[in-house]
């Protein structure tokens, strides 16, 4: 069965969804609503039926799924309106401005018995799936720290992203992706949240943040996003009790290093190293280490929509679930609270 989709907010991401929809069998974008005539003109040139009135769009539009791709502060308004019009809704991330808004959206989906899910497309990123596979295949044992970083160099936040009222800032923009990835990879509750937000080049919102999550087992996850970091750090760095993994970039360069000999003998004498005399930090004998390639993973962002179509056809469970969205939003709220109070927040999320 073919499912038709109408887009609210035909901007950068709305038009990206349209372009990529051709890769999804059983999905066709038919219509767009926007408040900007220029964007509607582009949508019409791209073959869509366009609307500048949302009521008319929802009443007469030929589609059963709505994608909400406006600035963040309008997500709840349009999502609830579309669900009340009995449409399934796919909302862009971050799903909402806070947990209370998200709960209203979830309530609307239950009341109207329609799908409500969010475009957490970075669960299909290759770098992420690579790290997830290293851990789930138990290649390096039990992790004790996971570091996930995304660094930009431009020091610029585009358009509405620079303003609080629109739900701007990096914690909402990239943080929501990286927190979602982490919670979906570590199958444990978060017991502590510590966060520091900075406004380096963008006065009103955070354009750099450092977030530390502690999980039930003691595992520590650090998420760092910056927009003005001129030297780059690796995308992923994980230490576990039998090895480490480094994924340097989106191209998935890096490697896994495993210890072939877990317990090391003490050096009887202090070792003279380039860094001075030390036994603890002396280089490890090469024969006790094993370097292996990162596993190869296949992944396509189109799989996100394929899952939605399979769900609507009763063939698969939905991957991005409402209770997972709630957990991410709870972590974000705790992160804002931590930054404000300069304290870590104890929790069970
Ligand atoms: N999942 C991802 O990888 C990803 C990437 C980029 C953006 N996004 C998300 O997509 C959403 C849109 O971001 P963008 O980069 O496309 O922004 P954008 O500014 O390029 O586009 C937003 C569009 O919404 C329209 N709009 C603004 N206010 C509106 C209103 N009140 N009613 C109807 N239309 C309105 C604008 O005219 C514009 O066409 C955001 O929530 C953002 O976080 C997600």
Q: Please, could you describe this protein's structure?
A:
The chain has 349 residues and is α/β, with parallel strands linked by helices. The chain has two domains: 117 residues, NAD(P)-binding Rossmann-like Domain (Rossmann fold, 3-Layer(aba) Sandwich); 194 residues, Dihydrodipicolinate Reductase, domain 2, CATH 3.30.360. Helices cover 31% and strands 25% of the residues. The protein has a nine-stranded mixed β-sheet with strand order 16-13-12-11-7-10-9-8-17. The radius of gyration is 23 Å and the shape is elongated. The two termini are 38 Å apart. The site of nicotinamide-adenine-dinucleotide has 23 residues, from helix 1.
Protein traits:
2 domains, Dihydrodipicolinate Reductase, domain 2, 9-stranded mixed β-sheet, 9 helices, 17 strands, Rossmann fold, 349 residues, 6-stranded parallel β-sheet, binds nicotinamide-adenine-dinucleotide, alpha/beta
SSE arrangement:
Elements: E1 3-8, H1 12-21, E2 27-33, H2 37-45, E3 49-51, H3 54-60, E4 65-68, H4 75-84, E5 88-91, H5 99-112, E6 116-118, H6 126-136, E7 143-151, H7 170-185, E8 190-198, E9 208-215, E10 220-226, E11 236-240, E12 243-247, E13 254-259, E14 272-273, E15 276-277, E16 289-292, H8 302-312, H9 322-341, E17 345-346
Parallel strand pairs: 1-2, 1-4, 2-3, 4-5, 5-6, 7-10
Antiparallel strand pairs: 7-11, 8-9, 8-17, 9-10, 11-12, 12-13, 13-16, 14-15
Residues 8-14, 34-36, 39, 69-72, 74, 92-93, 119, 121, 159-160, 173 line the site of nicotinamide-adenine-dinucleotide (NAD).
């Amino acid at each position: 069965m073919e499912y038709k989709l109408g887009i609210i907010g035909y901007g950068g991401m709305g038009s990206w969804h349209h372009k990529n929809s051709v890769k999804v069998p059983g999905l066709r974008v038919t219509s767009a609503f926007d408040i900007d005539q220029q964007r509607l003109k582009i949508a019409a040139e791209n073959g869509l039926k366009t609307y500048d009135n949302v009521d008319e769009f929802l009443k007469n539009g030929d589609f059963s799924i709505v994608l909400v791709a406006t600035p963040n502060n309008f997500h709840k308004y349009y999502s609830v309106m579309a669900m009340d019009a009995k449409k399934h809704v796919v909302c862009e991330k971050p799903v909402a401005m806070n947990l209370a808004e998200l709960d209203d959206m979830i309530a609307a989906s239950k009341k109207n018995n329609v799908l409500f899910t969010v475009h957490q497309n970075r669960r299909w990123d290759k770098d992420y799936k690579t790290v997830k596979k290293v851990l789930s295949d138990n290649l390096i044992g039990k992790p004790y720290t996971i570091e996930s970083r995304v660094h930009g160099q431009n020091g610029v936040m585009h358009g509405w992203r620079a303003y609080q009222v629109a739900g701007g800032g990096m914690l909402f923009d990239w943080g929501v992706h990286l927190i979602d990835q982490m919670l979906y990879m570590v199958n444990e509750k978060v017991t502590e949240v510590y966060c520091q937000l900075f406004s380096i080049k963008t006065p009103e919102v955070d354009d750099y943040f450092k977030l530390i999550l502690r999980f039930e087992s003691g595992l520590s996850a650090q998420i760092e996003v910056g927009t003005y970091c001129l030297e780059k750090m690796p995308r992923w760095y994980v230490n576990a009790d039998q090895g480490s993994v480094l994924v340097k970039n989106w191209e998935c360069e890096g490697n896994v290093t495993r210890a072939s000999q877990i317990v090391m003998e003490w050096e009887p004498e202090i070792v003279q190293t380039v860094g001075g005399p030390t036994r603890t930090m002396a280089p490890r004998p090469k024969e006790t280490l094993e370097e292996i390639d990162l596993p190869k993973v296949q992944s396509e962002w189109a799989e996100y929509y394929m899952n939605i179509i399979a769900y609507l056809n009763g063939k698969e469970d939905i991957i991005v679930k409402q209770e997972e969205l709630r957990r991410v939003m709870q972590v974000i709220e705790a992160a804002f609270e931590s930054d404000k109070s300069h304290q870590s927040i104890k929790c069970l999320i």
